[in-house]
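Q: Second attempt. The first request was missing the SMILES, so the protein and flavin-adenine dinucleotide are both included now.
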Amino acid sequence: MKRADVIIVGGGVAGIATAVRLAERGVRVQLMESRKKLGGRATSFADARSGLRLDNCQHVALGCCANYLDLCDRLGVGDSFAWYDEQHWIEEGGRVSTLRPGVLPAPGHFTGSFLAASFLTMKQKVQIARASLAMMGEDREAWAERTFGEFLEQQGQDEQTIGRYWSPVVVSACNLDVNQVSASAAMQVFQEGFFANRGAARIGVPRVPLVELYEGVAGLVEKAGGVVLLGESVQEVGRDFVKSIGAGRVEAEDYEVGDKGGAVVLAVPFERVSGLISEEARASDGRFEAIGRLEHSSILGVHLIFDEPVMELPHAVLVERGVQWVFCKDEGGRHVHAVISAADAWMGLGEGEIVKRVLGDFIACFPAARDAGVLQCRVVKERRATFAPTPGHERFRPEARGTSGIVLAGDYTRTGWPATMEGAVRSGYKAAAAVLGEADESLYAEPVKVGVVAQMLGL
Ligand SMILES: Cc1cc2nc3c(=O)[nH]c(=O)nc-3n(C[C@H](O)[C@H](O)[C@H](O)COP(=O)(O)OP(=O)(O)OC[C@H]3O[C@@H](n4cnc5c(N)ncnc54)[C@H](O)[C@@H]3O)c2cc1C
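A: Got both inputs this time. The predicted holo structure:
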C-alpha cells in the first residue's frame, strides 16, 4: 500500500490544471493517466501515414479564455500561440469577407467590417444587429431550458440568416445545432466571446502540436515531490483511495483544511465516472446519478495534404457548407485541416465518402484547389467529443465537491462554460480549491473585462 497527499485520476487538461495549482502550493500529487501521454481529448498522435505529429483535432483558444491562458503561462507555453484578430468567411466561388475589429468600442467593434461583408444582405445584417442588441441585455439563465432556435425565431431571424451566420458560430462553439443547443449556452458565446471587449474574440491557434504544451507538467509536479504516472489505468476510486493494476492500491488520507493530508480528484470524461467510483461512494452521493443523464456530441477532423499550395489564409469559415472551419497547418499552404462540429450524421460514413464531401466543400470555396491532388488524408472521428449542451443540461453538471468526498474535475462539471479547454481548466482550478479548502473560484484568473459601452447596453 502506498500513500500520496493528493491523487488525481486523469491527465487531460482538467487533471493537469488541478495538478499544477496544487503543486504550486507544495502539495505532493500523484497524477495517474491511463494513456502514455498527457492532454486527453486535447492532444496529438503520431500519424504513420504522413509521418507527422497531428492533433486529434484543431483546438483553438479565444481571447476570453482567461483561465486556459493562465495555465499556459504557468506551464511556460503562453507564447506558443499565433493570435488572429480577423475571421475570414468564404462563400461558394471563393468570395472572402473579413470581420475584424475597427475603431468603435465593444460591442460595436466589428460594425465596420460587418457592414462591408458580402456574405450577408443588408436585410440580414439588420436582423443580426437587432438580435445581437436584444441578446446583450438578456438574462441568459432565464433561457436555460429553451433552445437558441427559439430565441432566433422570437427575434425574427430568417432561415438563410441562421444558416449563413448564426449556425456556423454556434455549432463551432457549442458543438450542437442551433435548434438543439440551449439558448443560454449559445448566448454566452456571443456575450462573452463577441460583445464583452475588443480582444475577447481573438483566435489563438497553437503553433506546436498540442501534446508539446504539456511538457512542463511533470517538472512542476516533481518539484513539489509528486509524480506523473503515464500508462496507469485506474480501476476503482473511493473517497480516500484508488486502485490500479500498475500502482496497486494507493491511499490518500482524509483531507483536513490546513493539513496536506490527502484527497482524491477524479478528472476523467463523464462517461467513465460511473464505472470507476466505489459502491460506497455511489450510494452516498447524488452527483453520480445526475452525471449519467448528460449526453455526447461528436466532432470530425479531417487532414488533407495537397501536392501544391491551396490555402493562403490561416483559417476560414465556410459559409453554408457541411464543413464549418478550415485551418492551414503549414507554411506552404498545402496541409489543410477541416473541422465539422455536431458531426453525428457523419459518424457512420467511411473515410472515402468523408474525404469526398470535405474536398467538395473545400473546392467550392477555394476553387483554385480544383486541380490540386490529395497526397494524404487522415480522418479523426471523435464520437464522444463533448457533452451536448441541450436545454436543461446544466442541472446534470456536478459541483467539484460532494458528499462522497471525491472531488470531481472535467469540462462537464459545473464551470459556467461549455465543453472547452477553458471549461476544463476552470474545473481543475475549482478542484484544486476544493482540495485546499478554499472558496470555489479563489484560484480563477482575473475575469475578462466588460467594456464600458457593453456594460451600458446591459452586459
Ligand atoms: C475533436 C475535438 C475538438 C475540440 N476543439 C476544441 C477547441 O477548439 N477549443 C477548446 O477549447 N476545446 C475544444 N475541444 C474540447 C476540449 O478538448 C475538452 O473540453 C477538454 O480537453 C476536456 O478536458 P478534460 O480534462 O475535462 O477531459 P479529457 O481530455 O477527456 O481528459 C480525461 C483524461 O482521463 C483519462 N482517463 C480516463 N479513464 C482513466 C482511468 N481509468 N485511469 C486513468 N486515466 C483515465 C483519459 O485518458 C484522459 O486523458 C475539442 C474536443 C474535441 C474532442
